[in-house]
Amino acid sequence: MLKGFKNFLMRDDVITVAIGLVVALAFSNLVEAFTKSVINPLVAAAQPDTAGLGLGYQLGAAGNEATFIDLGAFISAIIYFIVFMATVYFLIVTPYKHIQQRRGKSVFGDAPATKACPECLSDIPAEATKCKFCASPQRAAA
């Protein structure tokens, strides 16, 4: 049982995904610091009359953070997401696709075209005439 678990953990995909997650989490801190220290002040400067609360609308008493709709934080979160996902794509996904392509594997591509098996209606590749089960000798003998 433990040998099977070890084999599962040592597969290339699991290790690659684990490394990708570690890199993504580490990079997440960098992007968060960028949005908090660079983007947030720029967005807050777009509406200077909010008593230092940033870009948004005050619903209650002036200066009360509890009644302030903070659009600047939402804009920063969108920028954070776009920068983070672009970095993950260009630094992790694209090289991974290239490496797997050199190994002869296709990843993150379109699914191959399928059709229904005429006998059992299971999905089969578009070029096939029957699925493996329907074409097997045991099935023909039955």
From TrEMBL:
The record's subcellular location field reads:
Membrane
* Record-annotated membrane-spanning stretches: 71-93
InterPro entries registered for this protein in UniProt: MSC/AndL (IPR037673), MscL_channel (IPR036019)
Please verify whether the record's keywords include Signal: no
* Coiled coil, from the record: none
Q: How does it sit in the membrane?
A: Multi-pass membrane protein
Alphabetically list the UniProt keywords: Membrane, Transmembrane, Transmembrane helix
**Main localization (coarse):** membrane
What protein name is recorded for this chain?
MscL family protein
Q: Can you name the source organism?
A: [Mycobacterium] kokjensenii
